[in-house]
Design goal:
The structure holds three protein chains of three kinds. Chain B is mostly helical. Helices cover 71% and strands 0% of the residues of chain B. Chain C has one domain: Orthogonal Bundle (MetI-like fold), CATH 1.10.3720. Helix content of chain C is 72%, strand content 3%. In chain C, a hairpin with a 7-residue loop joins strand 1 and strand 2. In chain C, helix 3 packs across helix 4, helix 4 packs antiparallel against helix 11 and helix 11 runs antiparallel to helix 14. Classes of the chains: A alpha/beta, B mainly alpha, C mainly alpha.
Amino acid sequence: MKGKRLVTALALLAMTGAVLQGCGGKDNGNDASSPSASPSGSAPASSSQAPQEENVTLKVWGDLGNQAVLEEPFKKINAAFAAKYPNIKLEYDFAQNDQSLNVALQANELPDLFWVQGDKTAKMGEMVKNGFLLDLTPYSLDLSRYAESEVTYCTVDGKIYCSLPSFFDTNVVYYNKDLYEKNGLQSPTTWDEFVQGLEALKAAGLTPIALAGKSEWDRAWPIFAFAPAFSNSALKAAQAGQGKLTDPAVAETLQAFRDFIDKGYFGKDFLAQDYAAAQFAFTNGKAAAIVDGTWANATYVDSGINLGRFSIPNKEGKKVVQSSYSNFMTYAVSSKTAHPDQAVKYIEFLNSLEAQQILEDAVGLVPTLKDIVAKDEGVKELAVFDEAGVNIYSVLTALSSQESNAADVLMKDVIPKLMTSAITGAEGAEILDKAAAYPAQ
Amino acid sequence: MNLKARRTYASSAILWLYSSFTLFVLGYMTYQAFRSKKELLSNTFGWPEVFNFANFGKLFAEAGFHRYFFNSVLILAATLLIVIGLSSMVAYGIGRFRFRFKNGLLVYFLIGLMFPVQLGIVPIFLLIRDMGLMNSQWGVVIVLASGLSMPVFLLTTFFEKLPADLYESAKIDGAGEWTTFQRVMFPLASPVVFSICIIMSVQIWNQFFVPLIMLQSEAKKTIPLMIMKFTNNLMYNIDLAMAGSVMATVPILILFFIFSGRVLEGVASGGIKG
Amino acid sequence: MAWFKKRPFLWFILPGFALYSLFTVYPIFSAFQISLNRWDGIGPKTFVGFANYAELFGNKELFGQLTGAFRHSVVLFLLNTLAVLPGQLYMAYLLYSRIKGHRFFQAMIFSPQFIATPVIVFMGTLIFDGNIGVFNKLLEAVGLGEWTRPWMGLPELGIYIVWMMVAWSGIGVGMIFFLGAMKMIPVEMMEAALLEGASYWRRFFSIVLPQIKTTVLNMLILTYIFAMTMFDFSFILGGVSGGINRSVDVMALFFYRIAFGDNSAVGGTMNVNAMGMGTTIACVMFSVIFVVAVVQVVLTYRRTEDGA
């Protein structure tokens, strides 16, 4: 009977799968087992003398969205940790994204440690407010290596809730050195030089800058880069309630974007391109440059083009860049963990130079701390700037209320309208101003 | 019996065109999987400099493709067995017998399709956790196997249409309800069951949300999660994404080509005998 | 026990019913209960009765998004019904009659189902992109250079591009069902028609179609439900916001956007009433689908009871 044969076949398949799974299961992801050569620890682990030697297992959730990038370094980091603390076993899984974290929060099934985004979003604050995170202040973490803004990242209501960020994300212009040199251009030192260069590239028939018009975040990077260059102080003032977003500097930022669109500096068909297409345009030599985050450095390096990077200079020739902290190493502890002391040991380890250097060597991010050695010249080039400026998205988020989200208005309303040449920079600034809720004086 | 028309050239041509397009897409994907990352990025449309298996090697060695594959197979086989078993029973129950809430029950089973699974995930999560099946393929199996809507819906109409005399003659021969079902009615449903098997297999195979929430450790994850790992940072992993997609598609496709021919042909003896 | 013996159908139905009710139906009630609250998913819930529903229909912005998304979902349904369904029937019939190469066609038509949706979108870029796409290169090669376009993203075509990917990916599903249904047509019927001299297409319209009528109507219901709940392609093509001017926004994406918010490496938003409003949207989505599906089911079954 055909039916019977099908059933038997399926059952056999299932059993085979189960058996093989059992065999394969022995070498499953307990990354803490294989010790690897790790640099001798330098920063003293300021831990309280924990006399208990009981074996403890900690469940840690890693960043699923960036698993491909973080898998290698965290294997090494966890191995180094295991070598240091043989009685603490780590079950590190890449299991966390927005949805799985939400489910864990609602079901009250948080792992012992998981990564958070600090003050970049309202989420960590919300979690603290509802008692999900363990207050780390009583553990007297060694904060000597860190600057104030890094501590602020982790602080809610004066208390510390996560390991501190040691890397820095910003947006730079990646450019094709061959194409630039062929047109007699080099890395610009002033804004005008930058724009002249784009004009020359356009005349040569290239797309000066590739733009991913279809991708909501990736098309905003130019604005994120222009904002601190043009309107750093204006934005800071607005956030403090001492200025408004209608400040001409803000309008200038948006207008610069609009001008690039009108003058064709982003090419003709940017509205049709998604992020992959824009990247292809750059890596295939059709576009001479692309504005992207420092986290994309590795991809462009792998493409094999003669890669250069520069931060956008403002009119005075100063490079003020957008800054936000990387959340690759910022983890928090669940308030319901059964092993708070051991969990904090992991936090301390993430705060140490040893762990941070491992991540740097693998991923090549821009370090904020002086003692982390940059991976290579390329990474050093990413970090060439004069001043760390504001992140326009954070400023707008700070100026948002429950009724009106100014940051959303920028991303979903103002930017698309600029891209289709429907509004000017000044009009865009007006719209943002109306959407903002300024703090009372 | 020759059911062919003598003049189906136009239709034939259309099919050839469409299939060639699909074949081209698959072929292009496979072709790109043999190129190095550098080439893919800098010379996307072009002839390969080197035709190598490096991507595939990396896929198995570093990424552990075989583990994901076996998880996917295990979940597929177990879920399919349960779904076919339960849904055919339910469909038979609703279709064959007359009782008061028949239509209501049918609509009840349709409800499952109308609701986004992401919303109901927390109660499901809690249930699975309480059953102790967290981070286990069996948790995923149970949740996926509860998706009976489509098979029940399609099988019910089939069972309803079967002529009553077959049923009567089996009863007269002294068969009980269950035996009738098992030996007479269910086998008659083979064509529909096979179609459902094929469709459900693909849906189960491609599932990613439920495994995402239920399976945390790498060793338990399924193929769609592996593909997702690559497509999250697509350009950075473009070589593995291509190779992974090829490995996740082509072998299954070849299997499908071999079996579907036999399966659907063996069923061509369709219709009810005498 | 006698009560059960008299109703043997209960035995058949019970196991499936239990599993289904527990894991599929119960969460729906749970979600409905949440929609009566104001909740961001993390903190405490506040009971607000039907206020969320009032807000969804009253708030201009939200309602606008709802109708826009609904409109796109309906467009998908109509396109699928008018273009894809007939296509599936057409191809199924050709394959049923063992046209030359039918095994190859069958595999090719169905194969896109095996490809993960992000990969399909990516292949779309690889083939149709303005710069590196194969299609444009082909046009150039045959001398049609002026016809090259950035195919992937002419913004007005947003939802149609989504539809094309949905269609290409899913056409095999319906086709397989129709093929299976056709194979169940009694052989004698087809033979009789042949003897009577009915032509190829005549046989299709007078015999095959009526015989598989129920399957077709079932597929219609399933197509409707699927079009209303489609998510993947819109998400990948348009991101969480549903594309420029929300051109690819659909119901399931609208729900996702409200419930889970929008996040990136440099920041994100968190809706204050994420879960509350999210479940409300899902319940509205569900009711819309439910009502129409019930009407379709009733019509289908009424007809088969009289006609069959």
